[in-house]
């Protein structure tokens, strides 16, 4: 079988982010340089109990290839059923288990980063994904511990499940998104296992990505929050360029707007407001611009506003 993911060059991966990495956004970063895109985190529960909204979250853009769906869960039967549902959906190349989400509602449910505190449980759940998955890839996204750092134990447990690669967010669950990222821990994990390891956490620009790859010796970088409002980071990484023209930025913003309308219909204009808040950061007159677009719901007027502002 032809391998779709090539680790001969560092991989540039878009991290799954709830509420942001929907189909339109993924198709934009894919077009401008991301190697792999991943769905928003899907609850195995919602998938198995046939939530329509969840089904829509799995849809992918034709350009997304390879495309991975990320699931979360802590019950073997539900995870198995979720994997079997995904097996029947065309165009998915891999299934990723979320073992890192620090959100209380996910954690208290026993899913996400909760699994890091119970490696037996992690192996049971991840092993279930591996066992039933008929797609090309089984992967996992982890953090470096719950309260204490246990990076090497976690890496070995994940590797033992037979995954193809893992992505590591260099913080503990307790560190949420604020604590300094521990790139030493990522480096140790990379040294401890034979499978590829992708570094994640505070990789916010081209320079930082290069530095993290060199320091950790990781096989790629995963970028999440830094891509919101700056999806051209993938373009910079792909083309090895520090600077990006205002024209290129504008092209990417308009492309994103058009994709959102295509996927969500006219309501997409309203949804795009929060994204324009991110896009306009640092621009002169951004506050007035935000005030105006907060009152616009007509796609054509909003597109004109974007054209004129950026």
TrEMBL record:
Q: Does the keyword Glycoprotein apply?
A: no
**Pfam families in alphabetical order:** Dus
Name the PROSITE patterns for this protein. UPF0034
**Keyword vocabulary terms for this entry:** Flavoprotein, FMN, NADP, Nucleotide-binding, Oxidoreductase, RNA-binding, tRNA processing, tRNA-binding
List the catalytic residues: 101 (proton donor)
GO molecular function term, any single one: flavin adenine dinucleotide binding
Where in this chain does the entry annotate a coiled-coil region?
none
Q: Does the keyword Cell inner membrane apply?
A: no
Task: Show where the DUS-like FMN-binding domain sits.
Answer: 14-300
Kindly list the positions annotated as binding FMN: 70, 141, 169, 224-225
Q: What class of enzyme is it?
A: oxidoreductase
Q: What is its EC number?
A: 1.3.1.-
Catalytic reaction annotation: a 5,6-dihydrouridine in tRNA + NAD(+) = a uridine in tRNA + NADH + H(+); a 5,6-dihydrouridine in tRNA + NADP(+) = a uridine in tRNA + NADPH + H(+)
| Cofactor(s) the record lists | FMN
**Can you tell which superkingdom this protein's organism belongs to?**
Bacteria
Q: Which family does it belong to?
A: Belongs to the dus family.
Q: Give the function comment from the record.
A: Catalyzes the synthesis of 5,6-dihydrouridine (D), a modified base found in the D-loop of most tRNAs, via the reduction of the C5-C6 double bond in target uridines.
Name the record gives this protein: tRNA-dihydrouridine synthase
